[in-house]
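To whoever is on call:

I kicked off a structure prediction for a single chain this morning and the downstream step that reads the tokens threw a length-mismatch warning. I double-checked the sequence; it's 752 residues and nothing unusual in it as far as I can see. Pasting both halves so you can look.
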Amino acid sequence: MNVHTSASPIDPEAGGLPPSGMTVLPAMLPGQLDLRRLVTTLRRRLRLFGAVAAAVLLATILITLQATPKYTATANVMLDPRKEKVTNVQDVLSGLPADSSTVDTEVEVLKSRHLAERVVTALKLDQDPEFNPDVRAPSGLGAVTAGIKSLFGATAPDQVRLSALEQQKHQERVVDNVLRGLSIKRAGLTYVINVSYESTEAAKAATIANKFAELYLLEQLEAKFEATQQATTWLNDRLAGLRNQVLADEAAVQQYKIANNLLSASGTSLTEAEISNYNQTLAQARAQVAEDEARLNTAKQQLARGSTGEDVGEALDSPVIQQLRAQRSQVSAQVADLAGRYGERHPEMMKAKRQLSDIDAQIKAEIQRIVSNLQAKVQVSRERAGAIGGSLGGAKGTLAANSRAMVGLNELERKAEASRTLYESYLNRYKETSSQQGIEQSDARVVSKAKIPTGQSSPKVPLNLALGLLLALGSGAGAIIVAEMLDAGLATAEDVERRLETSYLGAIPLLSSVAEDSQLSPIDQVVAKPLSSFSEAFRNLRASILYSRLGEPVRIVAVTSSLPGEGKTTTSLCLGRTAALQGAKVIIVDCDLRRRTVNRLLGAEPKLGLLEILSGAATLQQAIAVDEGSGAHILPLAKSAFTPKDVFGTSAMDRLLEDLRSRYDLVILDTAPVLPVADTRVLAPKADTVVFLARWRKTPQHAIEAAFRLLAGTGSHLGGVALTQVDMKQQTKYGYGDPGYYYAEYKKYYVS
């Protein structure tokens, strides 16, 4: 924001003391809790706190008193890991494992709808009015409605024939009502489960709790008995089929032996050994092929790279090559000797060279022979490996032919053995299962049955009252917090400086809060009673304005606000009158072209005013009026003052302000509100400082911030914010740390 603001009154770099009327707030440490501020807030919102807390507490008491007393009975069921073993055989349905997850699972089983349905059926709870609203006797408005229906011949609910779907829904509602009173909890980390039931009748609660425990144990026994019976029936049917299968498989084995002459069959270990030898020989032959091919490929690669063949491995080992190389060395030495004695053209020299060429040709021919020999070896190795592979294939064919019949026999024998083993296992299990029928045991037992309770379990009056009291206190505190959060107005100097980040100029009290018996208007009060606290507020405001620009004189002051009804004109007149009574030369200029509130408050209707001066129709001396009570000068607006032209942005307005600056000690511009009218944004930069007014606890913070944004960029200097129409009696509850907070202690200092 480009609006210039005065230095903060607690800024150490600004120098000097804080201006009169400004409040220096004590710095709070981060996280520091100000108990006195909390107490002040509670005092201010005490009625709201009391109303909300009383309403919540009263509602809690009424709900508690109107609640139907209920009784809770508890039966204890224990999962017993110990089992009686009448027969030492494995159970069809094994017992529950003794672990924590199993106990938790059984807790959920006790809560199941299936078990609740069995309890409803066993105790006929669908005919109990507590669980079935349809069988309750109508009362109150319901009785009146039932009587009216009976007069018109309406059919009673119990006489209506319900469909199957409606009957199912009806039964489900009864089960839901029964489950609402059921509470299943595990006792710590033990194997004990508490089955509790809450009902409006003590005896009924005990009966239902015991029935849940009883039917739970019965369900376990029924599950084991049913599992054993189903297993026995299934095993018996299965044994009949397995018996026929065993007979058929054994007969197939005997018939196969006869058909394939395998009555005295033996193994073929010799053929397997032969195949093993062939495998080893084939591996060696393939290795030899790889070696020969590697030698041949290496020799070819050396010759392809330009080698003479003398560095080939087989050539190095060849005695012929070695002999030829020795001869070549002798001839080469002879050539060198002859070259030194006779020269290149000598017959002996030419003869020696022909011998050397002949030896080289023999070496090359020998190398070609060696390479050809390598190729032959490769071919022989490949043929040998192929022959061994063919022999191995023949041996494998012989082995397959000899063993084919044995494979079939082994398959038939394994099948027959498997059928026999399966039949014997099923037969043994059938005998064990048959012996278990009638001796099934439950995995749990009732440790203690539910007793008829002697005292009600709900509502718990002391607990409800204690919780209601806590809830009431919390609701009251929450209401205060919500009210404070919704309070968007400004009440203290701290609110102005912390929330608006600007200086606090002072507070203008509501006249009725400081002078209850006064019949005077605010502008007359400052003249009639200059030593009153109301008048002192404007003197403090003037001091704050004068020091709002440290080191610079302040003569022209623009008084404005964000919205109408903030007290701008009243403040301007009271400020001007107070300053005039102190001996200053003051002029109050009415710059609100639409309202002309100065004329209304002074009860005058001038013919000449500000616009006439700016248009040149009148002089300053002709338009100025003198306030008889204080001696302040007034520059009003004539009746026909409104004009759509921009009169404040003209050079005539600039000349007028310069003239007023030279003539008066204090020039007060009573301007229009910033938000609805643009005139103030034109006038604000022409003033030495802008005094922004905000109505105490009424003007929303967002409206002030919007006005600040509109003033941004105009180059105006914002001296600070002053609160108007402050109720000093209520301020003692709002303004902790503010001068108004101590008003009750120093109000006797002033003269009423």
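Update from on-call: the warning came from a stale cache, not from the record. Cleared it. Sanity check on the structure: The first helix runs from residue 35 to 44.
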